[in-house]
Amino acid sequence: MPRPSSARVADPRAPHLAKPEDERYPPPPDVDPYGVVLSRDARANIKRGFDTMATTLRVTLGPVARTVVMESLSTARPPEVLADAATIARRIIGIPNHWEDMGAMMIRHMVWQVRENVGDGAATTAVLAQALLDEATRVVASGTNAMMVRRGVEAGLAECVKVLEDLAIPMETEEQIEALAVAAAGHDKIGAYIAEILDILGTDAVILVQEHVGLEIDREYIEGLQWDSGYWSAYFCDDLSRMEATIENPIIISTDTNLEKVEDVLPLLEQVMEVKDELQAGGLVIFANDIRGPALALMVSNNQKGTLRCLGVKAPGAGDRRIRILEDIAVLTGARFISEDAGERLREATLADLGRARRVWANRDFHSIIGGAGSHAAIQQRTAEIQETIPDAENEFERTKLRERIAKLTGGCGILRVAAPTERERDELKQRAQEAVSAARAAAEEGVVPGGGAAYMACIPALESLATEHETSSPDGVAAGIRVLARALEAPAYWIAENAGHDGRAAIAAAKEAGPGHALDATTGEISDMRQSQALDPLKIVRIGLETAISGAVMALTTDAQVRTKNQEPEVNP
Hints:
- This protein is of the alpha+beta class.
- It folds into 3 domains: 35-169 and 448-562, GROEL, domain 1 (Orthogonal Bundle); 174-224 and 411-446, TCP-1-like chaperonin intermediate domain (GROEL, domain 2), CATH 3.30.260.10; 227-374, GroEL.
- The protein is 50% helix and 15% strand.
- The chain is built from 20 helices and 20 strands.
- Strands 6, 7, 8, 10, 12, 13 and 14 form a 7-stranded mixed beta sheet that branches.
- Mean pLDDT is 83; it is low at 5-15 and 18-25.
């Protein structure tokens, strides 16, 4: 495919593609920072804030993107060099003009919500929202009703989703996942390791991205269930050089009760003593909310005298998640969970309530269960129950924790260790690796579409046809709204090209001439079929980014008043 022409092409229809600010709205004179701003002035303030934030974030869009340097909150630390739009937005907690700050915070909230939902796509969301608001503002300024424009944009969204779903293809091979991860991370080895982990452990696998002091990027697989909670007492250790405790073929019980008195644990210890030889058990492991006082002393005494090998392990997590994890441990080992909320006590437990495993290991900070004896059917049912709750989780953190539970129930998780010579470079690599993990997982869930903005441009013909239909049936501004969306969909491809040092307008013209699915390959500078060059984007991220951008842009478009009542303290969280 030919390279796009380097000649600059003026496009008066799309001012947001030609300059970073909107000159039609001059900055307002100094006004009282409190009170009410109405009508045109309110919309102008919102738009200037939109443009300030979006212009800052859009430099990070694309595989050959730029970075943003941010002053550190601590004078002892050097400035941060960031390439992740969501992180940049979250670091910006306000801009000087309070009225314009409202528009900037709308963008900030949008891009962080996209990060929380799908882990990537923040820069694309900002670019689309800015383009939509700019195009819609131009149309409304010519006399078109803003609510009709909004209705047209929303009608166009439904058509875009249909086109994107038709374009999507499933991710079927490790090579495809690797190509996607490499493109998202901008690093060959990181992409290769992410694809390897997902291929071995499955698409629901937990991939923990950790910083590593050194120069080599590496990965590690953790077998079985491992949680970040250790033993209650170092006196349980049998390897004093490593301060670790290991019990082979243990008998296991899981409870959320607090164990303090001798009678809380003595009946259970006596039962285990009677059957441990018959069951060839190496000892007793108790997972509990708290073990202390005489109860802990009794277990330690039995362990040190060799009467009965014991190990008390702290319950992982906190709050409601702690109880769910203890239930997972019970399912994995075939035990019955002893619940304090149900009025149950450990002293009343019987041998039928106990579970088994091949090995339990613990140190001060972690524990691991290898070869739990729980039934396959029970584990599968528990996994399915957790899987059903993932779509209803409030944010990406909660979804990650749910996936962790699934991974630990089904076999393990992978750790990707990123390394670089400097701390700042390690931080940047970690950010990019986390985005690549999110992109690979999203691609496995809903498939992929052509990248580089090609998927959005492929929606334009369908939108033009829809606009023509509405002009014939109802010439009330809905068609104008649909065309607003059609023009705004060029913005991601434009800024990917611009950030890579090419002429965005020429790249879009050449891509349209080449046909659907084509766009500028920013790494080569040529117009390519994005599928053939393996430049792909996850459908889930493309779709949610568009939906979020439209939601934010139409809210800003239909704003007709601003109210500020007091000097607000800036919030760090969006």
